[in-house]
Amino acid sequence: MTALLCALIGLASGFVGAMTGVGGALLAVPLLLILPPLVNLPSLTVHATTGLAMVQGLTTNLVGVLVHKRAGFVSGFLLRWTGSSIVVGSLLGSVASHWLPSRWLLLTLGFVLLFCAFQMFRPIAEVDSEFVQSNPFRFAVAGLVTGILAGATGLGTGSLTIVLLVHWLKVPTRIAIGSTLGISLLAAITGTLGKALTLQVPFVEAIGLSVGAVVGAIWGAKVSHKVPTKTLRHILATFIALAAFHALWHFLR
Q: DSSP assignment of 133-173, as one string?
């Protein structure tokens, strides 16, 4: 029964993750923690929950990026320059976080994300056009800064990358979503491997979660291609606001 519940959670989080590009962990983690006791099933430990969230992220990112790439909404330019620098920045940020005042960094990040969510609700003149490549150094530096913030705070790359691409680098929304899933895929691979090697991934629940996430990600990516970009931006803004509240909640703990 726990595997069936995990499959339903995977379906919901995979759909949201592939449709918005934020991965779905913001939805999967609270559902994995809250739902089992509500339906008289054994509670999942925090270690198991984070391990399953990594599996969900890996499955959603992999399936989602394949579907988005088939529709032409994944930019190799963004993966090479922004994606690689985000991976490097995440490593630097995670190491540097040992010496940084992380609580105040979380507070700053939370308010920055809230501001970005507000900005994304505002109308912009955007057309669904092919992404025009420009100065790669600009994209690499922006990715490095984003990766450092993500690594230092532990917030994850999805929400920050979406803000970076759509709001600051003016990448078309659909390409930003598909490319963000590709950028997040490498981190999901290494994260899942680390969790699996340290035995933090319950096998049966992971299978159920993955099956649900595959179906949800395919469905979510296809829906993303049909939803108006204005609606997508509003959905993204909502999840970015949730990420902001997540950061502020950790600050207040």
A: P--HHHHHHHHHHHHHHHHHHT--HHHHHHHIIIIIS---H
